[in-house]
Amino acid sequence: MRRVGVFVYFKEEDLLLKSYVAAFQKQLAVLGWSVGNNVQIDYRWTGGNPDLIRKYAAELIALKPDVILVAGGSHVGPAQQVTRTVPIVFVEVADAVGGGFIESLSHPGGNATGFTNYEYDISGKWLELLKQIAPRVTRTAFVRDATNPSGAAQFGVIQGLARSLGVEVSPVGTRDAGEVERGVREFASKPNGGLIIAPNSFALTNRELIIGLADRYKLPTIYPFVYFVSGGGLIAFGPDTVDQYRRAAGYVDRILKGEKPADLPVELSTKVTLAINLRTARALGLEVPPTLLARADEVIE
Q1: What is the mean pLDDT of residues 94-121?
Q2: 119 has a pLDDT exceeding 80
Q3: Cα–Cα–Cα angle for 157, 159, 161, rounded to 5 degrees
Q4: 160 with 278, same domain?
Q5: Structure-derived torsion over alpha carbons of residues 8, 14, 15, 16, reported in degrees to the nearest 10
Q6: 148, 284: one domain
Q7: What CATH code is carried by the domain that includes residue 104?
Q8: Most CB atoms within 10 A, among 85, 90, 206, 261?
Q9: Digit-coded pLDDT (tens) for 80-98
């Protein structure tokens, strides 16, 4: 019996987590690993709570797993603080090199490898798409985790592009719900605003709050993952996260069979999806350009 740990930023009851776990387990089964037969999986979900992140990282390592699947840069660092020997396969990480988790994408070194969400150029694409769907936007708030190095880098890319698009950009922190609500409320007190939501554990686990704030203050908003649009968000541009969990099972399989994470290159997302919610667009008084609609992979009527 081999032992696999799963350490994620989701809340236990999140249906999105269940779909990711199902994809991971299904692919493991395809590769010959049957839960309860030849592999045991131990789960820890934190809901983004910093105290639980530290506690559960230590708990999982104490169980002596053969490998750990870790979701999100906010969880890879704490896991590596506890162990530099137990193999880690990560998903949903924006900048594994900048975060100090690996030495390079092609030769990770150390005990971690996995799948990264974004190249930083995509941050500029978020701003471009927001301007296309809401041309009146001249002010944008970037909702991000100030402690996350990738958030700072993405903010820098957006700032570099903003002037050429005639947009002023300011940050809103995600330390807790109060900070987000105050920041968005203050930002919305002036006209012609829009939001860009950075991929961070708070925003992802508090999707209803974020979408609700955008709706309450009538702010055109672009999100980093398609599931925000399914939940009522306006537009999203981002990777296929389910595919990352599916592919992560392949790396877990290889490590269980003896390969080392230091020798497995970090892979980028292979598919990026553009999704648009026309119902939300109409509620905001926006007319989606036909050229943008034609490019969309998913359209919610």
Answers
A1: 88
A2: no
A3: 75
A4: yes
A5: -40
A6: yes
A7: 3.40.50.2300
A8: 90
A9: 999 999 999 999 988 888 8
The predicted-structure confidence for 181-236, as pLDDT tens digits, reads as follows 999 999 999 999 999 998 888 888 899 999 999 999 999 999 999 999 999 999 99
Say how far apart CA 116 and CA 102 lie, in whole Å.
12
Beta strand ranges found along the chain (DSSP E): 2-8, 39-45, 67-71, 88-93, 112-116, 139-144, 168-173, 193-197, 221-223, 235-239, 267-268, 272-277, 298-300
Question: What residues pair up with 143 in beta bridges, in sequence order?
Answer: 172, 197
Do both 71 and 147 map to the same domain? no
Domain count, the chain: 2
CA-to-CA separations, 182 to 5, 100, 189, 192, in angstroms, rounded: 37, 32, 11, 18
Whether residues 266 and 278 share a domain: the answer is no
3-state secondary structure at position 163: helix
Note down the domain range covering 97: 2-118+240-270
CA neighbor of 22 nearest in space, from 288, 265, 241: 241
Element (H, E) at 180: helix 177-187
Confidence check: pLDDT of 50 > 90 = no
Percent of the chain with pLDDT over 90: 76
* Number of residues assigned to the chain: 301
Instruction: Indicate the average pLDDT of the chain.
Output: 93
Angstrom distances, CA of residue 25 to CA of 29, 171, 183, 199: 6, 38, 39, 24
Which pTM was predicted?
Answer: 0.87
* pLDDT tens by residue, 239-252: 888 999 999 999 99
Q: Are residues 140 and 246 in the same domain?
A: no
Rounded to the nearest 10 degrees, the angle between the axes of helix 73-82 and helix 50-62 is 50
Same domain for 277 and 197: yes
244/285 same-domain check: no
- 278 touches 300 (CB < 8 A): yes
